[in-house]
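Q: What would this chain look like folded?
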Amino acid sequence: MTERKTLKDIAKDLKLSISTVSKSLSDSYEISESTKKMVKDYAEKHNYVPNKVARTLKTGKTNTIGVIVFNISNTFISQVLDGIHKGSQIEKYDIIIMQSRDDVNLERHAIEVLRMRGIDGLLISPVTYNSNYEQLKSLQETGIPVVLFDRVDHDLQTHKVGIDNQISAYDATEHLINSGRKKILHITGKNIGVSEARLEGFKKCLKDHKIEFDNNFYLECDYSKHDEIEDSIIKKLNYLKATGNMVNAIFGATDDITTLTLGILAEMDIKVPEEVSVIGFSNIRIPKSLNPSLSTVVQPTEEIGLVAFHKLVELINAKYPIEDYETIELKTKLIPRRSSVL
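A: My prediction, written as structure tokens:
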């Protein structure tokens, strides 16, 4: 087995100062490219592992960021995490991921755990509008920057990365209306950070097409109780059928709701799109493999994660306090498929 070298060993073997070796491994501009390559090649060959504890004591940084998401198994979230991971590989940061499970108390606990772990910064998709605002503000005040992604409707002053939810919802609703559907059920998540803007886009499109919003055609699902979402949708559809007021289209405002609804309609023997068209937000990898293929608003998930990560690193590395924060809205793509096209 090749002997593992220390920083001091590398310096002695290459007849360089410890400072030169350290700066070479840190890719310092003060060191020539040829010297950096020589040091890095030698370090890799001899299994050199940086002493993170020593580096933390010297720099005051752990090169670790925390990420809080609502559900790591959610397709949208897993793709965002891919983007964050790509950024972390480029910038050489470690990541600690925690889940809130759409529970404000679990989110608060995750924030405190990550604070105690000594993170340099936090990426978070909040549970609800302004959830745990004081804890997040406290992080900022102690020098741990925070960047919000996806669910960015939050009063915290910081960089925020997501999409234009209102326009995206408007476009999806208009697609249904242009297909001849006017009795559209809007299904969303209760109190999550994107629901209000997507509902606003839905309502605005109805108004622009002179269709009155009917509260019977609106359903909020409690995202803190994931097992009950399916039951809520089934109950709503059965009620509409029983009262003779069945819809002819459904707009799912979240990834889970959109894909789940398609399966529920199949179980209820409701033909899609002949009887009910379906469209909504979803980033599943196999929309064409569903029966029928699912019409979707696709979000640039990896880009959201990557951009949010780089904005956080900017804050971590900033020499002076940053007050000119950005809200970055990336473009979505509406893809009509068989579930909404007769």
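The first strand starts at residue 64 and ends at 69.
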